[in-house]
């Protein structure tokens, strides 16, 4: 059977590339040329979406909707009353917008609170440091931890100097290369420091730029390794302490953290749809996460992504369009804790995985997009390039690799094509998980363009006669 399947798959791939139609289960599979011609017919629709979003009555709508939510409610940490208030507000907003099947899907999410926290350098001089405890960190005793520090620039250096770390506070002054590599110090820093007997760890903020701004985020403990308090400090303080140590100074810090973890809280993923006209059971999913960290307003991460996903459905509805497949909006909860809400959604819906044509997540900012990141088969990628060509009027046509996101990776790993929005990551990681994540950094015109991209891609893929090919 495996050999026969291999032959059939080979014939299907050959047919796609050669331009000859074949039948599979008595259903005509279109050739690539036929698909190109089908997509070309959407140029007028794409232009109508772009005109409405960028130049028409809907311009700045996603920005204004977002500003109202974040100015009114503020940051939305997992387990907090603010998050639950935001979910209820969005539930009402989506119903009032006239979307269909608006509902809340219950999930259990982590509940951690940072409490009062401080770090003061006592030697060689007095200096109150800006810190942010890392998500899931334990707290200190009320009197805190007072200890000398050990500064390292890598995990390798920590291992080489392991005997020096015992009884100290390890300070990581790792250089920023890119987020995916550097974030390992935030995620694993406490565990690696605890393994060599450190009392606590302080991590240089994972940021592309800093104006004395600490950047928080999730960290992970490991079974069998003592849990120690951990927080992020500013780039400036990490570099200053490194210089002090290099001159032979003894640096002593007093760290106090009131962080606590409570029992998991009840929460919801928020869902709304435009139900498909021909294949309602098939789905194109657009999404962003509604939760945020407890600093700033969560405007960029990920208010912008959540609200352009809502805007995509609003634009399509406003134009009186109804795609063949169901367009499903999901506003995830507890993404910042590792995609907790999204994992529970996947567990509840994976039985219908064959009906998902494309999963989309915007969680890397809604600055001016440079293209669409995509993960899928080469055939699906070729189709997505044709879809993106419809965005020529706003000159955003690139299809790049790695269309991933914390909340959609469960589906992508199971073989569903996935897409994410790509824009200015340097700017994104300058404000990421910091007090600077506010509406001040958002640009309504750039959000208009991002919403247009999101709406065109989701509508066309949902309305094409065939689902995106898996292989």
Please tally the β strands and state the result.
18
> How many H/I helices?
15
Radius of gyration: 24 Å
Low-pLDDT residue intervals, each spanning 5 or more residues: 1-27
What portion of residues is helical?
25-40%
Strand count, sense and barrel status of the largest sheet are: 8 strands, mixed
Q: Assign an overall shape.
A: elongated
Question: In what order do the strands lie side by side in the largest sheet?
Answer: 3-12-14-13-15-18-16-17
Cα end-to-end separation: 18 Å
Q: Give the DSSP E fraction (strand runs of 2 or more residues).
A: 15-25%
Class based on secondary structure composition and strand pairing = alpha/beta
Summarize the entry for a quick read:
The protein has 471 residues and is α/β, with parallel strands linked by helices.
Question: Could you name the key traits of this structure?
Answer:
eight-stranded mixed sheet, alpha/beta, 18 strands
Describe the structure.
The longest helix has 20 residues, at 299-318. This protein has helices at residues 2-18, 32-40, 43-55, 61-73, 81-96, 155-160, 162-165, 179-195, 235-246, 299-318, 340-349, 378-388, 409-413, 425-431, 444-463; strands spanning 22-24, 27-29, 100-113, 117-123, 127-129, 131-133, 145-152, 169-172, 200-204, 230-233, 252-257, 260-274, 279-289, 325-332, 356-361, 371-375, 399-400, 418-422. The protein is an alpha/beta fold and 471 residues long. Helix 4 (61-73) packs across helix 10 (299-318) and helix 4 packs across helix 15. Helix 12 links the parallel strand 16 (371-375) and strand 17 (399-400). The strands form 3 sheets. The chain has an 8-stranded mixed β-sheet. An 8-stranded mixed β-sheet has the order 5-4-11-7-8-9-10-6, sandwiched between helices.
């Amino acid at each position: 059977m495996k050999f026969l399947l291999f032959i059939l798959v080979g014939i299907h791939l050959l047919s796609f590339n050669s331009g000859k139609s074949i039948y599979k289960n008595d259903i005509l599979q279109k050739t690539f040329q036929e698909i190109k011609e089908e997509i070309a017919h959407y140029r007028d629709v794409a232009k109508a979406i772009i005109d409405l979003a960028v130049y028409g009555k809907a311009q700045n709508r996603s920005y204004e909707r977002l500003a109202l939510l974040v100015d009114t409610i503020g940051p939305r940490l997992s387990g907090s009353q603010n998050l639950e208030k935001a979910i209820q507000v969005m539930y009402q907003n989506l119903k009032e917008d006239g979307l269909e099947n608006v509902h809340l899907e219950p999930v259990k999410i982590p509940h951690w609170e940072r409490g009062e926290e401080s770090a003061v350098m006592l030697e060689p001089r007095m200096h109150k440091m800006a810190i942010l405890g890392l998500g899931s960190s334990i707290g200190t005793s009320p009197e805190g931890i007072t200890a000398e520090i050990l500064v390292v620039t890598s995990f390798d250096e920590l291992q080489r100097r392991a005997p020096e770390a015992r009884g100290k506070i390890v300070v990581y002054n790792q250089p920023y290369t890119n987020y995916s590599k550097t974030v390992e110090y935030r995620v694993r820093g406490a565990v690696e420091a605890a393994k060599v007997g450190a009392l606590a760890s302080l991590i240089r903020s994972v940021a592309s730029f800093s104006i004395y701004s600490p950047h928080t985020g999730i960290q992970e403990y490991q079974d069998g390794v003592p849990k120690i308090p951990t927080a992020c400090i500013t780039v400036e303080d990490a570099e200053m302490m490194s210089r002090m140590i290099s001159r032979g100074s003894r640096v002593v810090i007093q760290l106090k953290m009131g962080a606590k973890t409570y029992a998991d809280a009840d929460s919801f993923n928020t869902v709304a749809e435009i139900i498909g006209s021909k294949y309602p059971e098939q789905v194109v999913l657009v999404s962003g996460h509604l939760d945020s960290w407890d600093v700033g307003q969560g405007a960029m991460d990920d208010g912008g992504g959540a609200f352009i996903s809502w805007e995509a459905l609003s634009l399509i509805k406003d134009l009186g369009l109804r795609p063949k497949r169901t367009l499903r909006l999901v506003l995830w909860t507890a993404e910042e804790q590792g995609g907790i809400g999204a994992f529970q959604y996947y567990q509840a819906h994976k039985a219908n995985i064959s009906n998902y044509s494309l999963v989309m997540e915007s969680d890397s900012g809604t600055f001016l997009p440079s293209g669409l990141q995509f993960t899928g088969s080469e055939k699906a990628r070729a189709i997505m390039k044709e879809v993106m060509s419809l965005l020529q009027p706003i000159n955003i046509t690139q299809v790049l690799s790695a269309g991933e996101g914390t909340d959609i990776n469960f589906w992508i790993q199971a073989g569903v094509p996935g897409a994410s929005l790509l824009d200015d990551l340097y700017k994104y990681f300058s404000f990421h998980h910091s007090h600077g994540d506010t509406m001040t950094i958002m640009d309504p015109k750039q959000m208009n363009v991002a919403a247009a991209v999101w709406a065109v891609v989701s509508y066309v893929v949902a309305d094409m006669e065939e689902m995106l090919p898996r292989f």
